[in-house]
Design goal:
The chain is of the alpha+beta class. It contains three helices and 13 strands; from the N terminus they run ααβββββββββββαββ. The strands form four sheets. Strands 1-13-12-8-9 form a five-stranded mixed sheet, with no helix packed on it. It has a four-stranded antiparallel sheet with strand order 2-3-6-11. The longest helix has 19 residues, at about 1-20. It is globular. It starts with a helix and ends with a strand.
Length: about 200
């Protein structure tokens, strides 16, 4: 690119010089000026510097009952159980979809921030919001299922600063996946930082 730009600039300069009747020394000076100009055009400015590479996401593996911290949230996945249904009130229950079972993760969460926040919000900034997923051995991802009206559902829970809450995450997943739950993981965190707990 540099050579082509210099050649084009030189041709234009020489043509102008010949047509205007300049001497050989003048043509030489004009050529040197053109060469310097082409070099400056090829030098990237400060604004055009190469962006630094994005750091790889940080992922930590912890055993059940171990406490993790991501951003303003401190949390612990205590245990998991597998059920066909859970009773949400005296007269109501949540059932697994046909061919599925419910994987229920018991979890405690503390808001370590200075403002009220929502743990596992339904919507938020993609790079900062905390999410949870259950991953099977083949890498398939399962999102928590909202248990409408159930007080113990920790997803989308509003928590005050330094407040600690206990609850559950419910994953409605295929029955064949639950048969090999020891090979599954529960990932909680943001795009840049997350924690992996064993699902069993």
């Amino acid at each position: 690119m540099k050579k082509r730009l210099f050649a084009l600039t030189s041709c234009v300069v020489l043509s102008v010089a010949v047509l205007s009747g300049c001497s050989a020394s003048t043509v030489q000076k004009i050529t040197e000026v053109a060469e310097k100009a082409s070099e400056q055009a090829e030098t990237p400015s400060d604004a055009e510097t190469t962006p630094s590479p994005t750091p790889a996401p940080k992922e930590t593996t912890l055993a059940l009952k171990k406490t993790a911290t991501v951003g303003d949230w401190k949390f612990t996945v205590k245990k998991t159980t597998v059920k066909n249904k859970i009773r949400t009130s005296q007269f109501m229950e949540a059932k697994a979809d046909k061919g599925n079972r419910l994987v229920i993760a018991s979890i405690t969460v503390t808001n370590m921030g200075k403002k009220k926040g929502t743990f596992l919000p339904m919507v938020g900034m993609k790079n900062t919001m905390v999410t949870a997923k259950l991953l099977d051995k083949d890498g398939r991802e399962y999102q928590p299922s909202a248990v409408t009206g159930y007080e113990k559902d920790i997803a989308n829970k509003s928590i005050k600063p330094l407040e600690k809450k206990s609850g559950i995450l419910v994953f409605n997943i295929p029955k064949k996946v639950t048969k090999n739950l020891k090979s599954c993981k529960i990932r909680i965190g943001t795009e840049g930082e997350s924690v992996l707990y064993p699902a069993k």
